[in-house]
Amino acid sequence: MLTKRIIPCLDCDLQVPEGRVVKGVEFKEIKYAGNPVELATKYYEEGADEIVILDITASHERRETMKDVIDRLTENVFIPICVGGGIRKVEDYVKMLKAGADKCSTNTAAIHNPQLLSDASEVVGSQAVVIGIDAKRRYISSPEDAKDKNVFETEKGYCWFDCSIYGGREFTGIDVIDWALKAQELGAGEILLTSMDGDGTKEGYDIDLNKAVNNAVDIPVIASGGVGNPKDILDVFKKTDVSAALAASIFHFNEYPVGEVKKYLKENNIKIR
After folding, report:
1. Residue 180 is part of a domain; what is its CATH number?
2. 178 is catalytic
3. Per DSSP, what are the bridge partners of residue 175?
4. Contact assessment for residue 59 and residue 167, using Cβ atoms and an 8 Å cutoff
5. Which of 49, 55, 102, 134 is catalytic?
6. Total structural domains in the chain?
7. Residue 134 appears among annotated catalytic residues
8. What domain range includes position 244?
């Protein structure tokens, strides 16, 4: 069995020049969580396997990703860094990798221009091309109500999963499973899969969502959205084959240090790096 990764996530904006880490609930109710460089350094020292930095307002504000923050952050952090938000063209991938990032996550731009994934993978390699998918459950009365979608029967009823863009501000009507498969075919090397319904709720990962996407694709899937404690991470590793678990709140607000989470997982027979 491949080792599982624990990945702290820094959702950032540029409300202050040096950038700030924020956290919300279901992509709303945003509150301050810390300085991105300080938090990234802390998580690196605690044993995080990777760090994801998402500039959550770059796409909405139609601006470039916070390159200066990445420059400063990577001076003292020596684990893989994935940067997302405002990645619109191949040059943005190249710029972020030159700044010290190892991967770039694209959501909105890739949905508007799927060819971007192929073009980017040819230049920087598929291992550096992450497709970010922000998924929202859409409940229906029966599978017949959504014949063109991949419908799943869950504890709460039948649903399909809708792709959102612009940091959850708009919905596309694109089926998450179909898009994940297409992104893989175009050259994406990994999927960062966020449950909008679970984001910040601390009610656990969306197991149905993660299982459905992971079972459909051959590339690694990072589970995101909903973790409230180490058991939630254990559950997503036990119940699905996702490659990594991403978390924010439990790390930012000192509820569970990275090292404590990894120790708990090892004690429960999860192979951790």
Report:
1. 3.20.20.70
2. no
3. 162
4. yes
5. 134
6. 1
7. yes
8. 5-267
